[in-house]
Structures are given as C-alpha cells and as structure tokens.
Amino acid sequence: MKSQDIVLLLKLMSLEDQIKHGQFDESTISDPFALRSLEGELGISKTEISSSIRCSIACSLAIKSNDRAKVNRRNLIEFVQHGLKYVFPAKRECPEFRVRGGIMGRKDTLYGTAQGTFDS
Hints:
Elements: H1 3-20, H2 35-42, H3 46-58, E1 62-65, E2 68-71, H4 73-87, H5 110-115
Antiparallel strand pairs: 1-2
Helix pairs in contact: 1-3
C-alpha cells in the first residue's frame, strides 16, 4: 500500500459526498470518477490510479460497484484511525527509512556512522 492509495480513496469519498449533497459542479467535469478526471485532480498517472484501485479492492478498502470503485467507508475510517500509523510510521528510526544499497548503504560511510543507522 502506498500513501497515494489513501489520498485516492479520500478523494473518491469526497466526490461521493459532494454528489450526494448536491455540491458537485457537473459543468466542470462530466464524470469525476473517470481515470482521466482523477489524474487531473490528483496529479497521479492513470496507471497508478488503476493500480491503486485494484490494491484498495483487494484490501477491502473499496468495492467494485457499477464498473467503478466505491469506497468502503467503514473499513477506510477504521484503517485511518487505527492502522495508518503502523503502515506509514512517522519515526525515522524505522528500518524501512534507512538508505540501502550503493555507496550510502555501506557500513563504512560517514552517513551510516553519523546517523547511527548501522550496527557495528
């Protein structure tokens, strides 16, 4: 899961709310759920949006309804409230934030020793 998956789901949920409450201006965009529309609104490629939707459906954060993704609100809200901090930790000490490979991934670099990210 990527952070852009959450952004996309929140955008879809926002669009659903705007349409439900009659706050969506249909003169600007004919189909706000189309990949091209989402691409323009979010700045994420159509390929990434499509991949994100597939991932969200597989994770039960969205469902496929009438040939488009619909946000599973209960699951998304639960995930944002309780799971987001575990998937995207804010602490830099997390091993996933370490620079790996190449010059910066070697133990003998100044970066690794100065940052204290490598065990001796």
